Amino acid sequence: MKITAIRPSLTLIKYLVILCIALVMSKLLMSEHAIIDNVFYFLAAILALVTLQDFFHAKQKTALAIQRLLINNFSFNHWHNVELIVTNSSNKPCTFYLAEHLDNRFECRGLNKAITLNGHEKVKVQYQLKALKRGAANIGPSEIRVNSPRGLWQSYWLANNQEQVKIYPNFNRLNQQQSLKGVANLPINGLKQLKKRGQGIEFHQLREYRQGDSIRQIDWQATSKRQKLISKEYQEEQNQHIIVMLDAGIRMNISTQQGSHFDAALNALLMLSHTVLKQGDWFSMQSFNQQERWLPAVKGAQNVSRVMNHFYDLHPDESASDYQQAVSNLLKKRSKRALVLLVTTLNDQDISDLLPALKKLQQHHLVALINIKNQAISETIASEIKNVDDANSYCAALALQNSFQANLKRLAKEGILCVDSQPEHLLPYVINTYLNVKHSGML
């Protein structure tokens, strides 16, 4: 550890103030008494001597050592426990304060308290950090403010324990939802629900005929050989391809209590990748606008971390969304038929720029538009009307909502699957869009 500063304590400042007040009072009330002056100078000399001695003690190397225990990967907007172990290797007790040097990606709580540690003892100090922004971040170095033996000085010591961590989208939900249990079967605009009784796309195996099997399932060649009815059993295709196009423009920079629209989308899409890869399908993802990132097709549940590491530090920029360019770039990379989910937030303009891009994409792929609703519009419509300004705001918000709904209906008529969701409800909608398409055999 290295010392960075030595500052007078509040106690020393109080002593100096009292001494100065005593000097002024002696000059005003008893200016001719040399004895009083001598007493004052004697006290000042003693204070100076004690202060100087305490200063040299404060400069001596501290006997404290710090070790930090924390996880390497943090979740966005989630509190995590961090533990500091402080060891006192000297024989004397020590009183100190702990602090951490953090960048602006963190909020901290639980460190503002004095700690007294006896000789040859150690103490565990727990505090909590909440990540406020995704990406790479630094924690530390730790700083100790140590009181000198007489409490007249405070020395500041910096530990060499800076660590870099990665702040991911809130991936704790992966641990909470390892299966698809609890995901609602939400209706998707433009998607016809097709019920199939065990019949999928790929041949799985032969088995004995069961009551309720379709005649088309019967394998007549195997039936003639075995002299009994044999049916073909199918399973859903395991090699379907799901491509996500994520808008990384200014439209996705709208803030909510859980973060921006972009944060909500990234959380939901990482869960979607987990579902797709667990189902045995291929997954690709492209962000578009000034920062374009492309993750080629991956397969297998073990590649969820690869998807996370590719996009965890991506943030939306201030540019307008260029759907035409994004679609052109995607078609250069992948023209073989896949389910493409375009995730964006519609604005109050018409869809003249979006519709041609989606129709171009439809020539090669099955297209679904995932629109994240502007929460401010919903809140304005739901709020109580108390005056004329509230009424005007309500009418404007309602007009915007009706415009969005009209645009979605127009897109649905063009054969585009449309989903309209609040940011906090996005996860079940995107997963069900994928599952409904997979189960219906549309792809």
Give a written overview of the molecule.
The protein has 443 residues and is α+β, with helices and mostly antiparallel strands. It folds into three domains: 168 residues, Immunoglobulin-like (Sandwich); 222 residues, Rossmann fold (3-Layer(aba) Sandwich); 31 residues, no CATH class. It contains eleven helices and 21 strands. The strands form five sheets. Strands 1, 3, 5, 7, 9, 10 and 11 form a seven-stranded mixed sheet that branches. A six-stranded mixed sheet has the order 18-17-14-19-20-21, sandwiched between helices. The longest helix has 26 residues. The protein is elongated and about 125 Å long.
Key words describing this protein structure:
Immunoglobulin-like; 3 domains; elongated; 443 residues; 7-stranded mixed beta sheet; Rossmann fold; 30% strand; 11 helices; alpha+beta; 21 strands; 6-stranded mixed beta sheet
CATH class of the largest domain: Alpha Beta
Which blocks of ≥5 consecutive residues have pLDDT under 50?
Answer: 174-184, 190-200
CATH-level-4 superfamily name of the largest domain: von Willebrand factor, type A domain
Number of helices: 11
- CATH architecture call of the largest domain: 3-Layer(aba) Sandwich
- Strand count: 21
Q: Helix share of residues? A: 25-40%
Return the CATH topology of the largest domain. Answer: Rossmann fold
The SS-based structural class is alpha+beta
What Rg is obtained from the alpha carbons, in whole angstroms? Answer: 34 Å
Gross morphology is elongated
Rounded to the nearest angstrom, the distance between the terminal CA atoms is 62 Å
Main β-sheet, in a few words?
7 strands, mixed
